[in-house]
Amino acid sequence: MSRQPESDYDVIVVGGGAGGVGAALGAAKAGARVCLVEKYGFLGGAATNAQVLAYCGFFQQGNEPIQAVGGAGEQVLEGLRKLGVAADPYHSETTGNWIVLLDPERLKVALDRLCAEHGIDVWLHTRLAAVSRTARRLEGVTLAGMDGRSQVGAEAFVDASGDANLSLVSGVDFRIGDEENRLQAGTMPLRVGGVNPDVKIDRNAIKAAVRTYNERGNEPIHRDDGGIYTRVPGTSDFWWLIIDREMPDLSSRAFTHAERSAREMAVALVDILREQVPGFERAWLAQTGPQIGVRESRHPTARYEVTYEDVVEGRERGDGIARAAWPIEVHKEVGRPMYEKVGGRGYFHVPLDAVRAKGLDNLWYAGRVIGADSLAYGSIRVMGTAFATGEAAGTAAALSTTADGRAPTAERVREQLISQGALI
């Protein structure tokens, strides 16, 4: 079935995760008519579709939480607070980073409300199918929804899909994984219910349970530190990152194996927790996923790639349009993440050209598809930073639709972002 376009927009954003929501809010606050397209039935990205129950990147690493992301990201946190979620900085005992613990169901509602308040036209259950392109510009997209296909036009577009789906169908060159085409491992988050709230969780007992699991001959768990875990606030649940899966490529077969094997591992692990960890005697596996957490896929070419040196030197730039403060976190070796601190004052700037597509004049990038080398990518991919780069991309896209249609200067984008409450 095919039908005529229902609406035309100033900016179309593909992907409703942190980068996409940030982009949609940034564009709307800059005065654009915005369409936000999301393949799931809810917004939130990995926080809601992969049970990543923590926002990373809102705060700098250190003894005290210093905020690095404001603007659209702060609006989301405020929306959570209105729904009873504290959204305060939480110091992870495992990594030493400051994170924000989430309630995914309330987050879905908070994002729905924010988009409605800003007049953003959200299309859920809708996938990008194709694009129309003329020379160096995109003219429109074909969107596939429950009621068939629609052709929708816009002046500017933001790829916030995470997997660079918009860039892919637009013909932009891309790299898969790092410079040697190796992908970072995926992780299957677990939520375990029925944990005794009065019993302190013993990390040594958790480590012993993992050793027991490995001795029983199943697919091995490589984290020997017990993984990253926390109690879910307001519940008796235990949230755990312990199961990592190697991703040899982006094929459906690779993802199918990762998903199936991770679920088998989760069931076996929780059985062992019940057997031998105090407080877990009545535990049960409440949830995996819903899907495995994907850290990396395609990297479309940008006009600038954030570099390793930008991160470790904490470079600040006159053309910076977002702060990034999460340390480099790379999962090349399954179960053995590598960390490296941000230098300088604890953050670095993402320049405007890192969120601009190379070869297309009206395509912008948000979240984990922005330009970055393989090590810098380990810093910029987290959701807190994605809100900041998304808001910048959406703002720049909106500003490009006015007057002569040319790309705005970094100075103009910065001024608009600061007026929207962003931290630059």
TrEMBL record:
Keyword Iron among UniProt keywords: yes
Gene3D superfamilies xref list: FAD/NAD(P)-binding domain
Keywords: 4Fe-4S, Iron, Iron-sulfur, Metal-binding, Oxidoreductase
InterPro entries on file: FAD/NAD-bd_sf, HdrA-like
A single MF term (Gene Ontology): metal ion binding
PANTHER family to which the protein is assigned, alphabetical: COB--COM HETERODISULFIDE REDUCTASE IRON-SULFUR SUBUNIT A, FERREDOXIN:COB-COM HETERODISULFIDE REDUCTASE SUBUNIT A
Protein name (database record): FAD-dependent oxidoreductase
